[in-house]
Specification:
By secondary structure, the protein is an alpha/beta fold. The chain is built from eight helices and ten strands. The strands form two sheets. Strands 1-10-7-4-2-3 form a six-stranded parallel β-sheet, sandwiched between helices. A hairpin with a 4-residue loop joins strand 5 and strand 6. It is globular and about 50 Å long. The model has no long low-confidence stretch (mean pLDDT about 95).
C-alpha cells in the first residue's frame, strides 16, 4: 500500500492543535486537573497505560474515543480487569450490575462530549452512569479528549453535545429518536430520548484524582 502523503497544510494544523492543546492544559491545571497534551492516539494510549496501575480494575463506559485508541484491548492484554457494558455477551439482566462495576472500578476511563476552551467539561447521558462517575467516585478518573471536542464556550458545548455528539450515537445504536432522522437535535419528548442528564464540570470535584489527556487528533463523536 502506498503511504499517503501529508498535505503541505498539515504542519500548520499540527502546530495549531499543539498551541490549543497547551492552552487547554494551562486552563485545566488551574482548575485542579492533572492535564497534558499529546499529538497522536498512539501517544494517548501510552499515557493511559502509565496512569492505570497494573492489576487495577478499569471501568469503561460507552466511549468511542477510548475504543478508537485501543485502550480496551491493551488493558485486557496487560492483565487489567476491564468492565464495560458494551460487552455483547451481556444479557439485559446483567447490564445493571456491569454499570455498577464500571463506576466502582479503581479507574474510570472515559472521554467527554465537549470541552470548553476555559476548561469546562459538558456531558449528556440517558441512564446517568457516565455522568455520575465523572461527578463523584472513589477511584482515579481519566479523560481522553480529541481536539475535535474543544469548543469556545458553554453554549457552544451544549450545542455540540446535542447536534454533533448525540445524532451519530443514536444512529450507531439504532435508537429511533427524531435526531436520528434529521441529524440534529429536535429537543424531542419521546420514550427513546437519550438526552436526560446534563453534567457541567466547572472545576475538578473535591478530593478527586482526575487526569486529562488532550489529543491532537479527531476522536469519537
Amino acid at each position: 500500500m502506498l503511504k499517503q502523503e501529508r498535505s503541505p497544510f498539515d504542519n500548520s494544523k499540527d502546530e495549531g492543535n499543539r498551541l490549543l492543546g497547551n492552552t487547554l492544559v494551562q486552563a485545566l491545571s488551574a482548575k485542579g486537573y492533572s492535564a497534558q497534551y499529546v499529538a497522536t492516539r498512539e501517544e494517548a494510549l501510552e499515557k493511559v497505560l502509565t496512569l492505570v496501575p497494573e492489576g487495577a480494575s478499569v471501568g469503561i463506559p460507552g466511549s468511542v474515543t477510548i475504543r478508537e485508541i485501543g485502550a480496551l484491548e491493551s488493558l485486557k492484554q496487560r492483565g487489567n480487569t476491564v468492565f464495560h457494558h458494551w460487552d455483547p455477551s451481556l444479557t439485559p439482566e446483567d447490564k445493571p450490575e456491569r454499570l455498577r462495576n464500571e463506576n466502582d472500578a479503581d479507574v474510570f476511563l472515559t472521554s467527554t462530549n465537549a470541552l470548553t476552551q476555559d476548561g469546562m467539561f459538558v456531558n449528556i447521558d440517558g441512564v446517568g452512569n457516565r455522568v455520575s462517575a465523572m461527578a463523584w467516585g472513589t477511584g482515579r478518573l481519566i479523560f481522553v479528549v480529541g481536539i475535535n471536542k474543544v469548543v469556545r464556550d458553554l453554549p457552544s458545548a451544549i450545542q455540540r453535545v446535542r447536534d454533533k455528539a448525540t445524532p451519530p450515537n443514536v444512529i450507531r445504536l439504532n435508537i429511533e429518536t427524531p435526531c436520528s432522522k434529521t441529524g440534529h437535535c429536535m429537543n424531542c419528548n419521546v420514550p427513546e430520548r437519550v438526552c436526560r442528564a446534563l453534567l457541567i464540570l466547572e472545576r475538578a470535584t473535591m478530593g478527586r484524582d482526575i487526569h486529562v489527556i488532550i489529543v491532537g487528533e479527531s476522536l469519537g463523536y
